[in-house]
């Protein structure tokens, strides 16, 4: 429930599952009936991410508005004109591949301006949604190490790929809610049929498969 917490920075190496989790969050938010979802990414998805096969309700997909700003300048233009866009305000704003936009102009000032625009756009959508409703913000950044985002993204989720078993793809997710709660770790498994299972990371050393959860213990 991204809209219930602070802006979230999703961190991980290439292939760690960042896009899959963003897309899963988009599907979840689209099914909550709170408003459309705005998904920003530099280029169209070539295939649907893992873990979405059982939740591809056409009605949910229709509520996800994909936008493909090809450059930092176009992303700036899109965010600056968001208040002019017709229709209901989004309940969730997602940006995939922040590092690609930052690579065009690595100056700290430009990065701060882009992040400030994202936060301001989410705040504007929250205002349009009305009292008691907020627009969540999730941004994915490719990196090999945890980032220091200062006050911009107090909440961070760090992803590390792992191999849970034959025919499965999994990752370890460490969520730091930025002072709003304890740091928690989760085991995310993408099964061969596309189903995504989430369970608490095992607290004791040993085989990671011991904490994967099942259809009765994990969360889908």
Automatic annotation (TrEMBL):
Source species, domain of life: Eukaryota
GO MF annotations in UniProt: single-stranded DNA binding
GO biological process: double-strand break repair via homologous recombination
Positions of the UniProt region annotated as Disordered: 199-220
InterPro entries: P-loop_NTPase
One cellular component (GO) term of this entry: Shu complex
Record-linked PANTHER family: ATPASE SWSAP1, PTHR28653
Protein name listed in UniProt: SWIM-type zinc finger 7 associated protein 1
Gene: SWSAP1
């Amino acid at each position: 429930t991204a809209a219930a917490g602070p802006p979230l920075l999703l961190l991980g190496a290439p292939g760690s599952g960042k896009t899959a989790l963003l897309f899963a969050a988009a599907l979840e938010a689209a099914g909550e009936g709170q408003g459309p979802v705005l998904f920003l990414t530099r280029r169209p998805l070539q295939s649907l991410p893992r873990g979405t096969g059982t939740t591809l309700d056409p009605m949910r997909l229709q509520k996800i508005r994909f936008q493909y700003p090809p450059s930092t300048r176009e992303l700036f233009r899109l965010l600056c004109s968001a208040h002019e866009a017709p229709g209901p305000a989004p309940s969730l704003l997602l940006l995939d591949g922040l590092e690609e936009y930052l690579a065009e102009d690595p100056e700290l000032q430009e990065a701060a301006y882009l992040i400030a625009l994202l936060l301001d756009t989410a705040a504007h959508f929250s205002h349009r949604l009305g009292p008691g409703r907020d627009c969540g913000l999730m941004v994915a950044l490719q990196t090999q190490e945890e980032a220091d985002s200062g006050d911009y993204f107090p909440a961070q989720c760090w992803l590390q790929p792992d191999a849970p078993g034959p025919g499965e793809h999994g990752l370890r997710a460490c969520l730091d809610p930025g002072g709003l709660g304890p740091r928690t770790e989760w085991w995310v498994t993408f099964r061969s049929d596309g189903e995504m299972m989430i369970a608490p990371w095992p607290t004791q050393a040993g085989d990671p498969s011991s904490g994967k959860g099942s259809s009765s213990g994990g969360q889908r």
